Amino acid sequence: MSANTPETADAPEAVVDRIAALFTGEGGAEYLGEAVTQAQHMLQAAALAERDGAAPTLVAAALLHDVGHFTGAVHGRDLMAGRDNRHSHQGADWLAGWFGPEVTEPVRMHVAAKRYLCAVEPGYFAKLSAASVYTLSVQGGPMSAEEVAAFEADPHSADAVRLRRWDEAAKEADADDPGFEHYRELLASLVRPDFSHPDSGRLDSSRLDSSRPGD
Q1: CA distances (Å), 41 to each of 95, 144, 176, 179, in order?
Q2: Which residues have CB under 8 Å from 71's CB, separation 6+?
Q3: Nearest Cα to 103, choosing from 93, 116, 117?
Q4: What is the spatial distance between Cα 183 and Cα 43, in angstroms, rounded to a whole number?
Q5: Which of 47, 28, 49, 50 is CA-nearest to residue 39?
Q6: Fewer CB within 10 A of the terminal residue: the chain, N end or C end?
């Protein structure tokens, strides 16, 4: 019997093990020109969410928001080379086999939230790191008025904005935040009891949802 089936008693733990492997594997790589690794960045974002009293689902979203950089058909390195890897969508689609929309949709929308904040909040652009300014240009730049209205109408937009603020702040090389094991129980508790992941490997980019704002 596969470890990734609902019939397996320890299925949630098996899911968390699979996610943990990303943090100890590809997550150890440099984070797109920032002073931290991919894993450090996501762990810092989760720690900031936890300190702000975010709901467990949003803490999980903060922890997992960038998994799309290394679970998709297009890698994070492609983003820095000028090709949008749509990591927000890739990550959300990968996670949706295990977690509900309260986790996956802020992940899906966190790039859109950067574009949104740059359009509606004076001074936000100035807070972006050099790497984030570059990726903003690849990802579509600040939103148009029509895109802003569509973003604000989404029920998960407020959580996506909170996640985005933690995302921008989670780039401190000397931060001393909890490691992945701190979040193991939280993640396991959020795995859907009826989960059935559609893919045992990397996602095919042709299956990604392109209908949402914030590519």
Answers
A1: 18, 29, 12, 11
A2: 22, 90, 91, 94, 202, 203
A3: 93
A4: 9
A5: 28
A6: N
Burial of 193 (0-12, 13-18, 19+ CB in 10 A): exposed
Yes or no: say if 212 and 19 are a contact pair by the CB < 8 Å rule: no
Phi, psi (degrees; rounded to nearest 5) at 70:
-135, 20
Residue found under tokens 């290394």: 70
Task: Kindly report the pTM of this predicted structure.
Answer: 0.81
Q: What is the mean pLDDT of each run of 10 residues along the chain (215 residues)?
A: 41 93 81 77 96 98 91 48 66 94 97 96 90 83 96 98 95 88 97 70 36 32
Segment (H or E) for 146: helix 145-153
